[in-house]
Here is the input.
Amino acid sequence: MRDRRDTRVICFTNNKGGSGKSTACANLGYELAASGCRVLLMDGDMQLNLTLTYFDEERALEIAQGQHTLYDAVRGRQDLQDYVIATPYEHLDLIPSSVLMSQIEYELFSMTRRELVLRECMQGLRRSGTYDYVLIDAPPTLGAWVVNVLCASDEIIIPVEASPWGLFGLANMFDFLDGLGGKTDAQVLGVLITKVDERKNYYRQTREILAGYEDIHVFETVIHVDSAVEWSQDVSRPVAVYKKSARSAAEFRKLAEEVREHGGR
Here is the structure.
C-alpha cells in the first residue's frame, strides 16, 4: 500500500517573459522525479511550453485541443485528479495546458470566489497525498489567473534572466505579491538567476541588485546559457535526457538538491 505523501506546491512566476520560467519548471520537475520524488507538473501558460517539453508538437497540440486540460478543469471547477496524464518518465505526471488558455481570465471573471478556483480544484490532489511536489508554470502576467496560481501554491520561485532587462518589473512582482494580503500564504522560496553568461557583466550586476532585496533568498545554483537546453526543447526532452553531461543538466540537479534541502525533504 502506498504511503501518503505531504504535497508541496511550488509555482514559477515572473511578469516578464523570457526569464526561463518554463524551462526551469520542466527540468526541476524531471530532476526531482529522477531523485525518487513523485512529481506533478501543471502547465498554466497558454504557450504550452511545459507540455512541449514532454510531448512533441503534434502530440502536444492534440492534447491541448482536447478536453482533458487544466483549462477544462478550472472552467468546470473539477477535481484535477481526473485531468492528470502520464509523461514518458517514471514518477512524473502532467496536467497539460490548452489552446483556449488565453480565455481563462474571461472564464474566471464570472465565477464566485474567483481567486480560489484553482485551490479548490486541487483539494483532492492534496488530500490524496499522491505527490511530493506539484510544480505550476504560471504565465508572464499579473492577472486573475496568476492570482489563482499563487493562492493555490505553498511556495514561489521567481526566475530572473541575467540581462539588462532581466530585473525589469521585479519590484512590481513583489508589490503584487504583497497586495494579495491574506489571500495566499505562499512564500518566496527563492529567486533563480537564469541565462547566465559570465563573460558579460550582467550576472554580477544582477547579483548585486538582488542583494539589495531584504529577506529574499537567491538560489546558490544559477543556470548558465547552454545550447543543450535549446536542442533538448527541439526534441521535446528534458535536458538531462537529451544530454546527461550537459552543464545545465548538472545545474538543474543541483537546483533540485537546493529545493529539497530548503524545504526539509
The chain has 13 helices and seven strands. The beta strands are 8-12, 39-43, 85-86, 92-95, 133-137, 155-161, 187-194.
